[in-house]
Write a structure and sequence with these properties.
Organism: Arsenicicoccus piscis
CATH superfamily: NAD(P)-binding Rossmann-like Domain
Protein name: NAD(P)-binding domain-containing protein
InterPro entries: NAD(P)-bd_dom, NAD(P)-bd_dom_sf, Polyketide_Oxido-like
Largest sheet: 8 strands, mixed
Domain NAD(P)-binding: 16-200
CATH class: Alpha Beta
Pfam family, one: NAD_binding_10
Bound molecules: NADP nicotinamide-adenine-dinucleotide phosphate
């Protein structure tokens, strides 16, 4: 499975660690890729010149601003968020997706929002044991999931554990994908981007929460 784009027009909102890898993955699959960022200089520092020239459109604006979102979503088929745990952004982006007739919103949440087969969330436990406020992390992500569902748009929520760059994609991340269950505690940005583009270009996980893990 490595679904190629039929020239889908994809918008990546927020080009940080995950966003950068989603841009590369989408271009590699033949999509037309636009981005929305708050700071153009940061984007130019993050992406190499060859990637920058391949972008269809760069919109500079805040993803909580409805007017900026409307500008960025003109002629867009699928929106990929490069930022999560931001309820206002989730709500405004979902509303903009609806207003602008975008087919689907892909959103990153967290591993705390998925159960393991035994009914326990391993990420929640790990954060709590490490002294983090696991409940606050869970609630921040869940508020975004609820806002997207409330807007009534089509979506896929990707719930990763810790994400870091690996420098390459795993050969078998597809075999780790779980629906409404946690796949593991960590996934590389490369593997996360691969899963998110599969979700963007097919309808197999529409309206689901999914996860994946990079095999160690
Ligand atoms: N990294 C992890 O281990 C991990 C694990 C589980 C879940 N997640 C979720 O996955 C998301 C992506 O992870 P990441 O590691 O790629 O994060 P990241 O490197 O911090 O990237 C987030 C990007 O979102 C942009 N952004 C934030 N608010 C924005 C706004 N209002 N308008 C436009 N852009 C905005 C930031 O832009 P600026 O550069 O302008 O700030 C940044 O480029 C996280 O936000 C988190 O919710 C991450």
């Amino acid at each position: 499975m490595n679904t190629q784009s039929n020239g889908e027009r994809i918008l990546v909102v927020g080009v940080g660690g995950l966003g950068e890898h989603m841009v590369h993955e989408a271009l590699e699959r033949g999509a037309q890729v636009s981005v929305m960022v708050r700071d153009r200089t940061k984007l130019e520092d993050r992406l190499d010149a060859d990637t920058l020239v391949r972008l269809t459109r760069i919109t500079v604006g805040d993803a909580t601003d409805p007017a900026a979102l409307d500008e960025a979503m003109q002629g867009i088929d699928v929106v990929l968020s490069g930022n999560g745990a931001h309820k206002k952004m989730a709500r405004e982006m979902a509303e903009a997706v609806k207003r602008n007739g975008v087919r689907k919103l892909l959103w990153p949440a967290g591993g705390t929002n998925l159960l393991a087969d035994d009914g326990i969330t391993p990420a929640y436990k790990a954060y709590a044991n490490a002294g983090f406020n696991a409940e606050a992390i869970y609630k921040a992500h869940q508020a975004c999931i609820d806002a997207i569902r409330d807007a009534g748009v089509n979506y896929v929520i990707f719930c990763p554990g810790r994400m870091t760059p690996a420098g390459h994609r795993s050969p078998d991340v597809a075999s780790t994908i779980r629906v409404n269950r946690v796949a593991g505690m960590a996934v590389s940005y490369e593997d996360a981007a691969w899963v998110i583009l599969e979700a963007a270009l097919t309808n197999i996980w529409d309206r689901q929460l999914i996860s994946a893990a990079t095999p160690s």
